[in-house]
Amino acid sequence: MIRLTALHMDLPGFTLNDVDLHIRKGEFFALMGSTGSGKTLVLETVAGLAPLDSGTVEIGGRDVTKLPPEARRVSLVYQDHALFPHLTVLQNVMYGQRYHGIPKERGRREARDLLDALGLARLENRKPARLSGGEKQRTAMARALACRPDVVLLDEPLSSLDPQFRGELRHTLKQIHEDMGATFLMVTHDFTDAMVLAERGAVIKDGSLHQQDTVTNIFRRPATPFTASFVGMTNVFPARYDNGSCAFAGHSFDGLPGLPEWRAGFAALRPEDVIVGTAADFPAEWHIMEGTVERLEREGFTWTATVRCSGQSLTAMVDRHMVLNRGLGIDSPVTVGFAGEHLHHMPKDV
Amino acid sequence: MIRLTALHMDLPGFTLNDVDLHIRKGEFFALMGSTGSGKTLVLETVAGLAPLDSGTVEIGGRDVTKLPPEARRVSLVYQDHALFPHLTVLQNVMYGQRYHGIPKERGRREARDLLDALGLARLENRKPARLSGGEKQRTAMARALACRPDVVLLDEPLSSLDPQFRGELRHTLKQIHEDMGATFLMVTHDFTDAMVLAERGAVIKDGSLHQQDTVTNIFRRPATPFTASFVGMTNVFPARYDNGSCAFAGHSFDGLPGLPEWRAGFAALRPEDVIVGTAADFPAEWHIMEGTVERLEREGFTWTATVRCSGQSLTAMVDRHMVLNRGLGIDSPVTVGFAGEHLHHMPKDV
Amino acid sequence: MTISAGLVLLFIAIPLLTTLTAPTGEILLETLNDADVLKSVWLSMTTSAMAAGLAFVFGTPLAYFLARNDFPGKKVVESLVDLPIMIPHPVVGIALLSLTSPNMWFGEFLQSMGVTIMGTRTGIVCVLLFVGMPFYVNTAKSGIESIPRRMENVSRSLGAGSAATFFRITLPLCWRHMLVGMIMCMARAISEFGAIIIVAYHPMIAPVLMYERFTAYGLTYSQPVAVILIVVSMLFFLLLRSMSLPKSEAQ
Amino acid sequence: MTISAGLVLLFIAIPLLTTLTAPTGEILLETLNDADVLKSVWLSMTTSAMAAGLAFVFGTPLAYFLARNDFPGKKVVESLVDLPIMIPHPVVGIALLSLTSPNMWFGEFLQSMGVTIMGTRTGIVCVLLFVGMPFYVNTAKSGIESIPRRMENVSRSLGAGSAATFFRITLPLCWRHMLVGMIMCMARAISEFGAIIIVAYHPMIAPVLMYERFTAYGLTYSQPVAVILIVVSMLFFLLLRSMSLPKSEAQ
To answer: Are residues A167 and B295, on separate chains, in Cβ contact within 8 Å?
Structure first.
């Protein structure tokens, strides 16, 4: 549906570096990256709002690289909603219909149906200033959908919302996508949003793509150390592989499943897969390391420890019980353990 | 150390309503409330920056109600640090010393000691624009402490920091307080910050105090439904008490420990103390309710469910296993259980 | 501090108040019935209004361009727009006359078109447009800047072309700024004198008439005209302030 | 859009360029050696600089007061500050003369102090201060507003009184705005003509001299003086732009 080929853009202090992306018809695609990674720039390229140095943008088989935004049949939804403040909710939703050959009466009927489906029916005569955050968000969605676009572009659709609304709106967004059949391209810095909403996705950093795959695969098998820490595998160690053993953080481990062929690479673990305990706590098939507690944090109502093992720091989960009853504290010597199947391996160069 | 008596202020759209507060010498006191609760106004009253309609402010036994800010010996630390951008770190820290009779040479020595203790020694000639968020925060703390104030006022000291630095700075703040012996008054909207840092605290809402106690007591025994939900006991139900039983959410429970004397009030539970399961899952002494799942959320890597029990909604924790293996979903009938000692009771009127 | 602040306000207010109260009611009435005075005030107002209208038509595209584009040399262009504020007023008159004098090709061209600048309404409007333009362009520009670009982007993505976007989104959201800009342009135009006296002593606009009364008959006979002009300026002021820009309408 | 925007820029630039290129080098050189011209330009610059200095001294407290306080009627006070921009220039002259004419108590008082306004340097500075003050006050005010109040609060809480806070925090952080305000005030003062010609035809400031040359000898002989004035104004302009305000120094 959307095919981006070798997008290149040189800006002062930033380069978008030969980005290739392929998004299938009807899918929900998440482009993930931190602030300044260039993800919004890619979105604006698809919308026709950012001037390319080279590369082509195809939508639905049409080469739209040279077309202005209004000829692309894409609808944009910004994080701050960008509702038109001088128009009512209904007028906002009906704004684009006339440019897509939808007659006024039919347009109004369709717009009302959309507002109904999104629970906004009784707000149709309100001005945006009098809407709550979630209502604004849903109005912006309705406006984008009302002109039956081929592609809906979402710029951080959930990050301006309070946590208690996020869950609700994720659900709404997913529902809308399933009902409408349009192709959704969302950029986000939040991996959880991508996990819940998207089928496939890509990770971008400093203007270069790091990985493009199904979201589940990105989550389970990140391709680079950056992607690994982005999806929550924040313990990343340089590792050496040799004769069926893997060495990192001053320990060498044997009997690990699925060892790679390369000799130098990175091994990574999610903090919630590493448990702090004493040697007797772990099942026999787990792998253990010795270290000392460097820091102990209570985040909300759980505890995490930073443990130093031969010059490498790692973050691990701590049982409440360990802290309160066994008196774990800073500088306590501890054993940390992990199950072999949780260890993920990445090659040195991608 | 600080005694606020009947502080009253009428502003357009907001009233600070006869606030009484007593903060002991050397303690770390947290004034907690949401945005717009008036907590920062109370702070500015202590600093002498907000004009009172009536009430008195005493610091260290002196009535300072009529004194200008510069005569109160309090130091203010704002959330955005408000470092002086044209001065270096060292100049910032030494700024107030001359007004407190500290000679220049001794002042410089003391300032350097403070910077050393806060790990800022090698940054003393930097301008604030070239500091990271955490460094700015620590510089602001050093500046406040360098003129040896009686009271340090902290306005949301941690909320502008990235989560990964928060833990570190909490630790630093606690250390500083223990080392300096000054009285700290912090306002915060984050109960976790208050839990970790403060000994005693108060909860304010709409310009009125709701509770003033040790932080542990506020956490364990919130006095009002508002305080209850503020400290994370978000399941609050109107309850009736009668002959040793307690009825709420369409169920009546017997054999609860520590039932109150009043007949009508509120019962509250933390979401993490309510578990979703089937009747066989719970220990015999637990109390159970029947309901249907209204919503199921994956927040990060845990699951929470909203369960409807006879017209009341409650939030409960769900085992991963329940969702993935037993196929829990929307509208599933479920049993939720809680231990009697986790149920908290509040009277109707305070 | 308050004393010094008050002094400045008095320094501005007292001369104006003195002038307003100087003429007797009788003389003021007489002046109000003086056909020359009324004609000149009317001429001042109509030419200023025309200048403001022209500033709107020609200045809006420039304001939009400056608000929405960053380019090397933007500061130079912005300086050029501000220049008429700083050029001594008689120099403005000299400059416009230099350009349109019949021995220049442009002046010749104008003459062949039947356009005369010296001593005509056309000339007056030209001068007033020249001195008033920066006020309009700067105010309109800041109005356009206050509208998030993202709103225009959304409008484009929904199918509206750039012209439709301007008329359906940009204009409805910043017409107030544009109106304020036009009022400021008009007020500045009404106050102009130094350039007008060089380009078009006749037909007499109000400030020129007052100057003539002053040189011919002295202070007392110029004061009633001054009163009328101050009152007209004040009316513009009230108009301007009643339009005061809402700070965050675009949110 | 670009065409219309370009037209406006040409409308401003061409008359000035024409004037700059009109006089031959010979006449220009002659004018540069004319003692009257040099004296008048010097007088213009010194009186304008004095007006800017006075604006700084008396206007800064007002600017601070307006930047840091909200009170009912603030808009009225702000309007009053802006008023000199909008009052027709000869009216400003008439108003100042009305106040200081010897048959008013204030004029009598001034006379007894040995101060004369009409036809003196003092009068010129008064007029220039009157017309330039709004430019200084508004720029200084926006500079002070750009400094977070919280910084001043912190300074007070650390023991510095309000005066010490102003000199150690506020002034070092917004001196640039104040300097820009002074330059704008001075540039506006240099361009004044309509009020000066009423209050003080003599001693002749540069715009008055040019006007005299124009009425006595015609366009050609006034152009060289215009060139000098345009160049002086441009120099101010470059100065102003090279000071261009950094947007977020206060962060």
So the answer is: yes
CA pair distance A59, C63, nearest whole angstrom: 35
Distance CA B74, CA B46 (A): 8
Q: Which of A179, A53, A50 is closest to A114 using CA atoms?
A: A179
Please report whether residue B62 resides in a domain. Answer: yes
What are the φ and ψ backbone dihedral angles of B170, each rounded to 5 degrees? -55, -45
- How far apart are the CA of D158 and the nearest CA of chain C, in angstroms? 22
* B167 lies in some domain: yes
Cα gap B153→D111, rounded to integer Å = 58
Same domain, B43 and B123: yes
pLDDT at C251: 30
HSE-CB at A71 with a 13 A cutoff on CA atoms is: 9
First-to-last C-alpha distance (Å) of chain C: 36
Shortest CA gap A76–chain C (Å): 6
Q: Which residue of C has its CA nearest to A95?
A: C158
Domain boundary among A167, A193, A220: A220
Set out the domains of chain D in order of their start, with CATH numbers: 51-201 (1.10.3720.10)
**Burial of C242: CB neighbours in 10 Å, binned 0-12, 13-18, 19+:** exposed
Contacts of B232 in chain A (CB under 8 A): 301
Q: Is the pLDDT of residue B63 over 70?
A: yes
Domain count for chain A, please give it.
Answer: 2
In a shared domain, residues B216 and B239: no
Q: In chain A, which residues have their Cβ closer than 8 Å to the Cβ of C155?
A: 84, 95-96
Which other chains touch chain C, taking contact as 3+ CB pairs less than 8 Å apart?
A, D
Considering only the beta carbons, identify the residue of B70, B73, B86 that sits closest to D160. B70
Q: How far is C160 from chain D (nearest CA, A)?
A: 17
**Is the pLDDT assigned to residue A200 strictly greater than 90?**
yes
Q: What integer pLDDT is reported at residue C250 of this predicted model?
A: 33
The reply to whether B227 falls in a domain is no
The answer to whether A211 and A227 have CB atoms below 8 angstroms apart is yes
Residue D129 has pLDDT above 80, yes or no: yes
* Residue B60 is assigned to a structural domain of this protein: yes
* Residues B100, B165 share a domain: yes
Look up the pTM and report it.
0.78
Among the three residues B165, B191, B220, which one is the final residue of a domain in this structure? B220
Half-sphere exposure of A342 (CA within 13 A, CB side): 19
Q: Which residues does chain C have with pLDDT short of 70?
A: 244-251
Mean of pLDDT over chain D = 88
The answer on B185 and B323 residing in a single domain is no
> How many H helices and E strands in chain B?
9, 20
ipTM over 0.95: no
Question: What is the DSSP pairing of strand A235-242 with strand A264-269?
Answer: antiparallel
Size of interface A-C (CB pairs under 8 A): 70
The verdict on A204 and A297 lying in the same domain is no
Domain that residue A286 falls in: 234-347
**B179 lies in the same domain as B265:** no
How would residue D247 be classed by pLDDT, with cut points 50, 70 and 90? very low
Query: Nearest CB to B147: which of D158, D161, D162?
Result: D158
Looking up residue B126, the CATH number of its domain turns out to be 3.40.50.300
Q: Quick one: average pLDDT of A161-188?
A: 82
D88-112 confidence digits (pLDDT tens): 899 999 999 888 887 777 888 888 8
pLDDT attached to residue D249: 36
CATH number of the domain to which B295 belongs = 2.40.50.100
Chain segment B128-157, per-residue pLDDT in tens: 988 887 888 889 999 999 999 999 999 988
Say how many C-beta atoms besides its own lie within 10 A of residue A319's C-beta. 16
Nearest Cα of chain A lies from the Cα of C176 at a distance, in angstroms, of: 13
Band of residue A198 on the pLDDT scale cut at 50, 70, 90:
very high
Taking residues B309-337, what's their average pLDDT?
80
Q: Would the CB atoms of A272 and B301 count as touching at under 8 Å?
A: yes
